[in-house]
Amino acid sequence: MKSALCNRFFILLPWILIVIIMLDVDPRRPAPQLTSRPYFSPHTVGCGGSRVPLRRSSPGRDAAEKRNESRPQLQPEPRLPTIYAITPTYSRPVQKAELTRLANTFRQVAQLHWILVEDRATRSELVSSFLARAGLPNTHLHVPTPRRYKRPWLPRATEQRNAGLAWLRQRHQHQSAQPGVLFFADDDNTYSLELFQEVTSTRKVSVWPVGLVGGRRYERPLVKNGKVVGWYTGWREDRPFAIDMAGFAVSLQVILSNPKAVFKRRGSQPGMQESDFLKQITTVDELEPKANNCTKVLVWHTRTEKVNLANEPKYHMDTVNIEV
Ligand code: UGA
Ligand code: MN
Fold first, then answer.
1. What domains can be seen in the chain, in order of their start residue?
2. What spacing in Å lies between the alpha carbon of 188 and ligand 2's midpoint?
3. Closest ligand, as measured to the CA of 187
4. What is the pTM of this model?
5. pLDDT single digits (tens) 23-40
6. Ligand 1 contacts CB of residue 270 (under 6 A)
């Protein structure tokens, strides 16, 4: 009986060892890629494109990377420009949802500095606590739009974008400009991570297509021999720069060397703000086409539908107070 048990044990032993080895090997397999890492892997960007490494500051991600030592270690390159995203934002039921989507995107980009400008007389508690937990380098500004400009037919967020520009100029006032690129990121748009790779290589002013805008599936700069020669748009082709706010980036150097370039209220109409601003800092001939000669849509001018709050009680009825 004893020797029969012994025999069985020695027959099973190699199998037990194999199972133990397999269990040991399994966790070392690369984890499924939850982020869009391929855009930033050294293998995919090795051929020409500049590299925007993933941000590595979040404790969750660092822990995940330590678990998987076989992954290439991506270190931020010191010469990469800081990407400044200026986002005007205002209080409404969907605000936190919009900011959450945006932060989830921005958090994946290294060296992105988020300049969030509230359309308010004071900083709101909601945005302050949101930013405190967002895990992103940020600057929280606020400036209210004067009431006379709060009209549906007037341009939005003029004062907020200017506050962002003023902060940038002030911050870089006394130092020789660090490499930096700025773009205007409205809080309701949708951004592909590939866009940041394109933005990074901006020398002066770069442009690219924008999806779901101007009454068409997309608008785009028309490019010939590497130069912008016109605009594909369904709305006001006569605009000097027929481009949405989401369709261009400007180097920090250009912002600093044109200290008076701002968004203007006087005489400006919705849809003309971009042209009015770009006219002050560049010419169509100078524009740098990105996104494969402006043939790829990497940002969408999405708009969130107004929420139905028809059944929201007039007075607070729940037993708890929940921030939404
Ligand atoms: C279009 C353009 O894409 C915007 O860049 C431009 O500012 C705007 O028109 C305009 O009317 O001038 P659209 O989707 O119509 O955008 O505008 P919103 O997304 O409603 O507003 C643009 C940005 O301004 C958003 O980030 C929004 O949060 C902010 N905003 C809007 C304010 O800060 N205050 C407001 O009262 C309204
Ligand atoms: Mn919008």
1. 82-208+244-292 (3.90.550.10)
2. 5
3. 1
4. 0.81
5. 444 444 433 333 333 333
6. yes
